[in-house]
Amino acid sequence: MDLEFIVKGALSIKKDVEQMAKKVEKQFEKVGLLIGAEAKKRAPVGVSGLLRARITHEVIKDGLFSMKTRVYDPVNTQSGYNYPLAVEYGTKPHWLPWEGSENTWQLWAKRKGIPAGVLRYAIAMKGTKAHPFLHPAADEVLKSFKWEL
Q1: DSSP per-residue codes, 40-63
Q2: Would you give the DSSP letter of residue 147?
Q3: Which terminus of the chain is less hemmed in, N or C, by CB atoms within 10 Å?
Q4: Would you tell me how many other CB atoms lie within 10 Å of the CB of residue 124?
Q5: Are 32 and 24 in contact (CB under 8 A)?
Q6: CB within 8 Å of 70: residues ≥ 6 apart
Q7: In this predicted model, what pLDDT tens digit does every residue of 56-86 receive, in sequence order?
């Protein structure tokens, strides 16, 4: 005995789902662009302006029905930590690297008229304050973003 199921219009449903997925992906791309642009406006400018310049985004597909937009800076610092996170959340006390040629933090200290050794000691004792720019950018964009599906 055979049991047979026939679903008429299955290919049409598949096509509709694929079209909807493309629309959703375009919306995620758009929201990533908008959050990235807003984050660049809000990011503090240090010596080089690289934090603003390197902010980018990507749409990541996590399986068939899961997608996310990631806005980030793809480069870590010389010491290996994620600089945008350090700016966004602040840091715990830590010693800054001293060896080699002038580091970005040393150039920043010089620009501000602060002796590099004093700045290094202060960060070693107190850490750094948070200067949120990414989360406020996302909050601002998402509260007014209109999803069009």
Answers
A1: HHHSPP-SS-HHHHH-EEEEEE-S
A2: -
A3: N
A4: 12
A5: no
A6: 32, 57, 58, 60
A7: 888 888 776 677 777 777 766 655 667 888 8
pTM above 0.85, yes or no: no
Q: What is d(CA 138, CA 123) in angstroms, rounded to the nearest whole number?
A: 28
Please compute, for residue 46, the number of CA atoms within 13 A of its CA located in the half-sphere on the CB side: 17
Pseudo-torsion of CA 144, 25, 73, 50, nearest 10°? Answer: -70
R_g (Cα) of the chain, nearest Å: 23
Name the residue type at position 72: Y
Q: What are the backbone angles phi and psi of residue 115, rounded to the nearest 5°?
A: -60, 135
Which tokens is 34 given?
Answer: 């908008």
